[in-house]
Amino acid sequence: MKKEIWRFIDSGNSSPSFNMALDEALLDWHSQGRIPPVIRFYGWDPPTLSIGYFQKVEKEIDMDAVKEHKLGFVRRPTGGRGVLHEHELTYSVIVSEEHPKMPKTVTEAYRVISEGILKGFHHLGLEAYFAIPKTLEERESLKNPRSAVCFDAPSWYELVVEGRKVAGSAQTRQKGVILQHGSILLDLDEEKLFSLFKYPNERVKERMKKSFKDKAVAINDISPSRITLEEAKDAFYKGFAEGLNIELEPYQLSDEELEYVNQIAKNRYENDEWNFKR
């Protein structure tokens, strides 16, 4: 049987506002039937702290530290917690809620899409698997995360290796379309990451840092050989094609499409009202 063809975009390193605007634009175009489903790979220039749609900047984020580290800053259209985008491969998947392969529930759709990431880890020789909270207590704790840091705990169907989280993802559904994007960590600067958030006191910060080491890990901390960004791209490209049973067709944006993306970037993701609204 002929495989379904999805678009593939590797947009390289871009500004935080452009990255979020392109994901939004792809969602718009797919909802209008102008493009098929899309897998996108991207990076960040400058390295950036992105926060979830519902996070409160004033309460949770140390903006002085963000500026001190010369980081970009942006609020995502998806939920979840704060992510430092630095040494990583970022991906996004844009697909209709009505797609025959997409389950109706967020959790199950998340698992189907993440099958591509799971296979990508396997291509890198890492024994990744899906985290499934076993006890009622674990499930309840997912509803009330104590930390503003995304990689602090695996949630339903998050990907883990040796019991520690290796990829963090978030999802939104708008205009009948699923947008899921996330970080696949190659390396991680924990000191920098933990300097970006506010804590009740130093003791709490130290305790969270300590427990974080048991919960999250970067690929190059567990891989037998060092994985480059290009090797990661190759592995996850194959992983998505295999995991979703699709063919990927490279796509370049037209000048007109780029103009549309830049407008969204300027009007929303470079706008303080959006980024600091909560």
Automatic annotation (TrEMBL):
<dbReference type="GO" id="GO:0033819">
    <property type="term" value="F:lipoyl(octanoyl) transferase activity"/>
</dbReference>
<feature type="site" description="Lowers pKa of active site Cys">
    <location>
        <position position="165"/>
    </location>
</feature>
<dbReference type="Pfam" id="PF21948">
    <property type="entry name" value="LplA-B_cat"/>
</dbReference>
<comment type="subunit">
    <text>Monomer.</text>
</comment>
<keyword id="KW-0808">Transferase</keyword>
<dbReference type="GO" id="GO:0016874">
    <property type="term" value="F:ligase activity"/>
</dbReference>
<dbReference type="InterPro" id="IPR024898">
    <property type="entry name" value="LipM"/>
</dbReference>
<keyword id="KW-0436">Ligase</keyword>
<protein>
    <recommendedName>
        <fullName>Octanoyltransferase LipM</fullName>
        <ecNumber>2.3.1.181</ecNumber>
    </recommendedName>
</protein>
<dbReference type="InterPro" id="IPR004143">
    <property type="entry name" value="BPL_LPL_catalytic"/>
</dbReference>
<feature type="active site" description="Acyl-thioester intermediate">
    <location>
        <position position="150"/>
    </location>
</feature>
<keyword id="KW-0012">Acyltransferase</keyword>
<comment type="similarity">
    <text>Belongs to the octanoyltransferase LipM family.</text>
</comment>
<feature type="domain" description="BPL/LPL catalytic">
    <location>
        <begin position="33"/>
        <end position="248"/>
    </location>
</feature>
<dbReference type="GO" id="GO:0009249">
    <property type="term" value="P:protein lipoylation"/>
</dbReference>
<comment type="function">
    <text>Catalyzes the transfer of endogenously produced octanoic acid from octanoyl-acyl-carrier-protein onto the lipoyl domain of GcvH, an intermediate carrier during protein lipoylation.</text>
</comment>
<dbReference type="GO" id="GO:0009107">
    <property type="term" value="P:lipoate biosynthetic process"/>
</dbReference>
<dbReference type="InterPro" id="IPR050664">
    <property type="entry name" value="Octanoyltrans_LipM/LipL"/>
</dbReference>
<comment type="pathway">
    <text>Protein modification; protein lipoylation via endogenous pathway; protein N(6)-(lipoyl)lysine from octanoyl-[acyl-carrier-protein].</text>
</comment>
<dbReference type="InterPro" id="IPR045864">
    <property type="entry name" value="aa-tRNA-synth_II/BPL/LPL"/>
</dbReference>
